[in-house]
Amino acid sequence: MPRSQRNDNFIDKTFTLIADILVRLLPTSNREKQAFSYYRDGMSAQSEGEYAEALQNYYQALRLEIDPYDRSYILYNIGLIHTSNGEHGRALEYYYQALERNPSLPQALNNIAVIYHYRGEQAIKKGQPEISKILFNKAADYWKEAVRLAPTNYLEAQSWLKTRNDLNESV
């Protein structure tokens, strides 16, 4: 049984019912509707921490979805799961793929920056100041673009950029 049919609480059931009605009414192909169903089930599984199930649903959605914009969100969510699992290299691959399809995805830019910043901090701990500088500069580049696209978001990143005197250069 699809996850969307297993929801236990009233709000989830209501959302699922409304989403099912909208999907049926929208002038989209069966393939697109099926892709959306897998995507929705992936989001539901992901929100419950069922990452293996979420990935299975997202991969099925990717197999069916042809719209680059919609694919970008699927790829972004796959990146989120890999980030949560500490697989930062794989997460970066999916965030980059998401940005190739949708360059205006500030949350992907932010997550890339977070990973580079984390790696910069790890380089400092390992006594590699030159590598940390490169990684922090990459983080700054991605955060500047995220802030440019979503100026009211990422306040911590904006603060960090200000401490580096990077924010005024980009905005």
TrEMBL record:
Cellular localisation: Plastid, Chloroplast thylakoid membrane
Bilayer topology term: Peripheral membrane protein
GO biological process: photosynthesis
TPR repeats mapped onto the chain: 35-68, 35-68, 72-105, 72-105, 120-153
Transmembrane segments: none
GO cellular component: chloroplast thylakoid membrane
One Pfam family it belongs to: TPR_1
Swiss-Prot/TrEMBL keywords: Chloroplast, Membrane, Photosynthesis, Plastid, Repeat, Thylakoid, TPR repeat
Matching SUPFAM superfamilies: TPR-like
Annotated family: Belongs to the Ycf3 family.
Protein's job: Seems to be required for the assembly of the photosystem I complex.
Name of the protein in its database record: Photosystem I assembly protein Ycf3
Gene name linked to the record: ycf3
